[in-house]
Each structure stands twice: as C-alpha cells, then as structure tokens.
Amino acid sequence: MGQTILLNNRPEGTPNLGNFKFEEQSVGDPQEGELLVKSKYVSVDPYLRGRMNDTKSYVPPFEVGKPLTSGIIAEVIESKHPDYKAGDYVSKVMPWKTLQVITTEDLHKVDASKAPLSAYLGILGMTGLTAYTGLTEIGKPKENETLLVSGAAGAVGSIVGQIGKLLGLRVVGIAGSDEKINMLKQNFNFDAGINYKTTDDLTAAIKEHCPEGVDIYFDNVGGEISDAVLYHINKYARIINCGAIAVYNETTIPKSLSVQPFLIKNSALMQGFIVSNYASKFEEAIAQLAEWLKQEKLVYTETIVEGFENIPQAFLDLFDGKNKGKMIIKI
Amino acid sequence: MGQTILLNNRPEGTPNLGNFKFEEQSVGDPQEGELLVKSKYVSVDPYLRGRMNDTKSYVPPFEVGKPLTSGIIAEVIESKHPDYKAGDYVSKVMPWKTLQVITTEDLHKVDASKAPLSAYLGILGMTGLTAYTGLTEIGKPKENETLLVSGAAGAVGSIVGQIGKLLGLRVVGIAGSDEKINMLKQNFNFDAGINYKTTDDLTAAIKEHCPEGVDIYFDNVGGEISDAVLYHINKYARIINCGAIAVYNETTIPKSLSVQPFLIKNSALMQGFIVSNYASKFEEAIAQLAEWLKQEKLVYTETIVEGFENIPQAFLDLFDGKNKGKMIIKI
C-alpha cells in the first residue's frame, strides 16, 4: 500500500488544505517495461494553482478525485526495464504518491554523485532546463547584448540571469521588492535591478538601466510590465514568453498594449514555449548546467520541507512567500 | 532640369493635393559608381500615409520640404558603374523625381523581357517579395496546413493566398466586402473567405472556415481581427506580422487581447519583419515568382495612371478605393 494526494475540490481564490485529500492505495506490480518507484523529492510550483481551476489554461486542469502531479525524484525499487535497476534515481512528472508503478516515457535518470538529488528538480531539472533552453534556443544570445528578465527573483528568472552573465550579456532584472533586487545583484550577479512596485515610471527605469535597449526579454510575467518593455526593444529583439503570471488567475484574458506595431517596427520575435519542446537539448543543457554548478559559477537557493504529508502545506506556503528559491518536499 | 514632388506640409486626417509641391530641380552629372536614371513607373502605397505624419512609426517620417520616396522603376540614361549600362532598367526606393543621379546601393536590375516593367513594382517587386519571404521564411509552410490571411484582398494578401495554394495549404482570407470575398475565391484561388464587416461573430466564422485551426496567420491588419484569430491558433502556430493597418493612424498604440497566454499555451511564434530583412532570398524569390507568373499560376491586378504630375492624385485615390490591385503611375 502507498499514500496518494487527490484534488478534493477546486479552490476559489486562495487554495487551502481542504482542497486536498489523502488516500491509501494499493500499488500493484510493474509489468514488462515498467518500474516500481518510491518518491524521494517532490517539487511544488505556483503554476500548479492554475491547474486546480477548471478553466482552460496552458495545461489541462487537474481532475477532482484524481492525484495532483508535479516533478518528482524517485528511487527505483523494482525494474522490469533493461535500462534501469533497483537503486537508480529517476525524474519525471508523476502523481503525488509515495510508491507507484511508472512507464519509462519521458523518464530521466539522475546521478546522485554529481549533484544533490533535490537539484534535479530545480537547477538541473525543469527550472534549469526552462531557463537554459528558453534563453539559448529562443534568445540566441550574442555577447554584450542586453538581457532583461521579468520575475527575475523567481526560480527560473534567477537562473536565466546567471546564465546570461556566463554568456557575456548585460543582465537586468525586474522584481517586486528591494530585498529581491539586492539578491539579484549580490547573489545572482545581475548588473542591475528594477523594483517595479516602487518605480514611478517603469518605462523610464528600463531606459535608464538598459541604455542600449533590450535585445532579449525573458518574460515570466506578461501584463503591464511586459507592455513597458515593448517601448525599449531593439531591432531583431527576441522576446521569450515563458510565463504570464500576471494573467494566471484571470478568468478572461485581459487587454495589453498591442504588440504588433512594436514587432513590425523592430523586426522582433515573440515565441511561447514549454520546456518539453526542447527535449532534444536536455542532455546538453544538463551537462552544461552541472559543469557550471560544479565550478560554482551558478548558485541556487531552495527550501526543503520534510514529509509526504506536508506537500499541500508546502504548496500553500508558496503563496505566502515562505520559501526562498525552489520549494521542495523531501519524503 | 527635372521635376520633383516635395512634402509641402503634413496632412491632418485625410491627405489632399495641398500637401504636395512640385519643383524644378537641376540634376547634375553622375560621379564614379553612380547612375543617371529616368523614372518610368512609380509605386504608391497606403503605408506612405504613415510617413507623412511626424509621429514615430515603423519607418522614419518624410521631411517637410524634401521629396517623398517610393519604389520606382527607372531607365539608366548614363552609367559610371561597370555593372550597368544605358538602357538598363533598375528598381529601388527613390525620391519622386523625373530624372536623378543615384548610387547602386540596394539597386536591382529588372528584365523587361521576362515580365511587364510595372510587375517589378508589384508581384515581382516589394509586394511579391513581402508575400513570398514572409510566408516562406517566417511561416515555414507544410503541406495541408491552414493559412489564414487578413487584409486578404490587398496587394500583399492576395499574393500570399495564391502562394499558399501553390504550396499545398488550405487558404482562408479575411476581407471587408462581399465583392472582395468573391474575388478571393474566384480570382485568387482561396478556399474560403470571411467578410469581417458582415460577420456577427468573427471567432465563430474563423472556427467554421478553419475547422482544423490556424497553423499560419499572415497578418496585415492587427487590431480586433487579430485578437479573434488568437483563439484558433494551433500548437506551433506561426504568426507573420506584416502590417497593422488597424493602428496605423492612431497617435497612441491601442490595447488588444494579451497575446502571451496564447503564445505560451500553443508554443506559438509571432515575428515582425520588413522585406529588406530577407534580401539574401530576393533572387530565389523573384525567380520563383516569375516562373509561376509565366506558368499563369499567379495572377495580379493593377491600376496604371499616366503622368508624373498625377502621382499625388493617384496616391489620394488609394484612400477612396479607386484602384484595383496595385496602383502604379507610368511616367
């Protein structure tokens, strides 16, 4: 028997513990090609909130009465697949279960000798891959260009900025508190930061900190911040549409500044993506990120909470800002 | 001596003949590397209206007291450049002058034996190149995909649709009158057309005519029409931002539906461009367009007005819809 966490009902507004339900479930035996795995580290991220709604969003909604899912690092207990053996650590998006049988589709092995296991959920997992592939594949950075990052103090944004610096860019971040701005500059090597909450005139602030304009805009937020950026994009600018948290909790999509005139005037590009589009680059990306990590050229922060039973509370704590960096539950 | 047409003053609202001024000017002799040329065909296009304003637009404004410019086919009268000789026909964006000395920068020879000279201002000129390079370089069409074209009955749109059909796409056009919709289907080989002015529900009409969604959207208009299209784009859709006539005459850029959620959800791309970005493809494009034209697989319409003195009136007539297809002045 194993434990699982189901969506009990859909939250209205801020989610609470009543939205989740724990259940004992029998696990069964792996069939040919399958693995029995035990969860070790579970990732919780703000984007899961959107999937708890029944509205059309970027990803299909969770179903009431079914388990929630997220990125999990698990240990192989029993293998019926030639490429895996008991004791291997693997990573994929899986249901919130202590024990489960999985297929090897979209599964990745992770190497506990190269980095802490939890890192494979963050900087060496979806977070790092999103930052790396978005910036390199869409942003196509060239040395000395200016990279502007919104949501810069977030898990993805803070890695994007560090990678940008390693690739020789001038990096400017937009975030929502002076503490975050200090962190961008002191911990994450950003050249400059803009606190959008205390800036009177965001377009003027962008102009001041990006005096040569914006060549690459890594956009985690959308909304009014991204409107302001449009006035400062350079010819052939690349806008990476990674997230639009400004509109995640809206039931109808709001209006923003018309982007077409800016894109035409500057022969600029906007490209939406999800990290799995670049699966063919994951091996190269992980190798590069692990190398930088080993050389201590990349830093990351994480908050680790212990216990499967604490997954819902850890998720809720994200909305109170109780985490520093990536929030992870250790089972 | 030659004649030239200057911007006399900036129009407010609809332009009129008083905005233009004719002047006699001496011409001078070509220096080493230069050519003396005589204008034969002059192109006038709606986008020139934007350049008559003193507001920031996609291209710098015309200056009061200086000549207006547009695409011109000219005959070489005297050459001081080894690659050109008297009697050659050449094409480039030049000042509105009967006779002038030009450099060979951005200059193209045109071959009067392969197509009528006026075609080099339309289907074998900027218009055709814009349609061909935008659709192929940004749209990257694959057989059986659905191409939706806004401003479909315009000079660029009608060529985009025909090229789309030649490349094996399902092609749907949006235009503003039933006469234009009939023309799309009967003359330009579109599979279907949507009259946005008489359609109660544009999103429903797009869904009806693009039952498998929109893979490529060639956008000449922006604004509300493009908002409606966003609801129907497919995964990996490509949106080609060629024009945004819906906002050309606005002094402040209006708001539209936020594009970010749609781009992220569909891993879709928007790319603004001007035709000169793809100069390296012009030779290939012209060869292909000329071949299709010879095979009568592409059709185009044009309105030819005679006389240098009639350039301003021909331009004004564009806004009264007095032209059919490309408006050209024969000198």
Automatic annotation (TrEMBL), chains A, B:
| Gene3D superfamilies the record matches | Medium-chain alcohol dehydrogenases, catalytic domain, NAD(P)-binding Rossmann-like Domain
- This protein's source sits in the domain of life called Bacteria
Q: Which UniProt keywords apply?
A: Oxidoreductase
The Enoyl reductase (ER) domain, residue ranges? 13-329
Question: Which InterPro entries does this chain map to?
Answer: ADH-like_C, ADH_N_2, ER, GroES-like_sf, MDR_fam, NAD(P)-bd_dom_sf
The reply on keyword rRNA processing is no
**GO MF assignments:** oxidoreductase activity, acting on the CH-CH group of donors, NAD or NADP as acceptor
Protein's name according to its UniProt entry: Enoyl reductase (ER) domain-containing protein
Q: Which organism is it from?
A: Leeuwenhoekiella palythoae
